[in-house]
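Entry 12.
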Amino acid sequence: MDLKKSYNYCIKLLSIKDRTSYEIIKKLKQKNCTKEIIEETLAKLMDYGYINDAKYIENWVRDKSKQPGMSKRKIYYKLMQKGFKKDLLDSIFEEINIDDYDTALACGEKKLKSLKGDIGAIKNKLYAYLLSKGYERDICNKVIRALLDEDETYL
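Predicted 3D structure (tokens):
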């Protein structure tokens, strides 16, 4: 595949949805493009502003941070799975303010409806569930106290 075909292929991919530079590289490798073609295509896409990993991360974080069950930690690791480098993520996450409490509360409220048993079992299940979603221990405790109207700390 030559430069023009690889560039047009990437434009087609980007017209469907935003993609990261990692995803573009992966797609071009699947098409058996040479390393030089991949680098030139990627540079051209970045020059024209079609690919901007920092902007992609900011948009993705803004969208996902509003969803119940998407803690700051979970968002971070999902982005790492998408192929972003740790230093890029760290620099962006320093600037972004995500309040995990609101999404944890919404997530806990939803989960609480499906839990059965005595209050101790419900607390344990809810705590384990929130931890599995990547929320910090203090946020889990705060959510459980808010949902179950308690004053004492759980753990």
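Annotation: The chain is about 70% helix and 0% strand. Residues 100-148 form one domain.
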